[in-house]
Each structure stands twice: as C-alpha cells, then as structure tokens.
Amino acid sequence: MPIKRQAEKGSRQLSQGPCKARTKAGDPCQAPAVEGGLCFCHAHPERLAELGRQGGRKNRRWKVDESDLPHRPLKSVGQVSELLEETINRVRHGPFDLRAANAIGFLAAILLKAIDSGRIEDRLAHLEAVFTHTTETETEAFDFRPINEGITHEKPSTASKDD
C-alpha cells in the first residue's frame, strides 16, 4: 500500500495549513500549524528550553562512579597495560562510553612513549655519569694496546724530543 503524501480530509494538518510565523532568517516557517495558526515551537517557545534539557539528559554518556573507577598509578609499562586491558574488557562486556575508551587509549599511547623516553634518559644519564667520573684504573680497562708495549700510569708528554 503506497504512503500518501497529503493528509486526509478530516486531518488537522490540512485544515490548519503551514505555520504563520517566520524563521530567524526571515523566511516563512514550513512546519504544520497546530494551535492558533502556529507550529508547536512558535506556539510554546518557553517549552523549547525544557525539551532541550530533557533530550540532553537522555544523551548523557555515562556517570562516573568513584567506586567503579578506582585511582590507578600509571608509572610503569605494566600498570598502563593493566589499564588498557581493563578498558578493553569494559568496552567488550558492557555499556562503556566508546569516546572515553578512545581517549584512554590515545592518552595511554602518549604515556607509554613518555615512560620509554624517561627510561632512555635515565640510561643515558647513567652512562654519562660513568664516563665523566672515571678514574685512571677504570680507563685502563678500555686500553686496547698490545701487552708488550707496556702500560704505564704516566701521561704521555706533549712536548717533542727536539725542545
């Protein structure tokens, strides 16, 4: 059975016609009139804000329950991995906001890079400390001259023999 585009003869829509009000742009409102020649929005402008609030409350993402989301220290790769594992399982098993899960994954990736950079900086600082605070005996361990040349603890003179 095809859908009719026009209202039946006894319909309110046919008898009322379009809304008599104008839009913010100045054009005639195209909505059907329901009360006094006006559409619902123009007949009840005070109700629009309340209807918008009701719709906004229905579209809330998720409520944060402090007991549901405990504080987690995220100072190691293992701790970040545990957070990602928990987030993945929450997404898979129940109603969990996908935008929040996406943000957690993005921030966790940044945090993992920062942790890795910190580890590299710590290793580099340790190596610099080893090389700048060495003694004569420590540097001799890296002297690769043949044994028969004889290793002395005297520093070679920079003056030439002809002086």
Report what the structure shows.
The chain is mostly helical. Among the domains are: 12-58, no CATH class; 77-136. 49% of the residues lie in helices and 0% in strands. The protein contains six helices and no strands. The chain has helices spanning 12-16, 40-43, 45-58, 77-93, 98-132, 136-140. It is elongated, with a radius of gyration of 39 Å. The model has no long low-confidence stretch (mean pLDDT 76).
Average pLDDT, rounded to a whole number, is 76
Helix % is: 40-55%
Low-confidence stretches: none
Q: What is the general shape? A: elongated
Alpha-beta content class: mainly alpha
Q: Compute the number of helices.
A: 6
Distance between the termini: 117 Å
Order of helices and strands: HHHHHH
User: Largest beta sheet, briefly?
Assistant: none
Strand content: under 5%
- Indicate the radius of gyration in whole angstroms: 39 Å
How many DSSP-defined strands?
Answer: 0
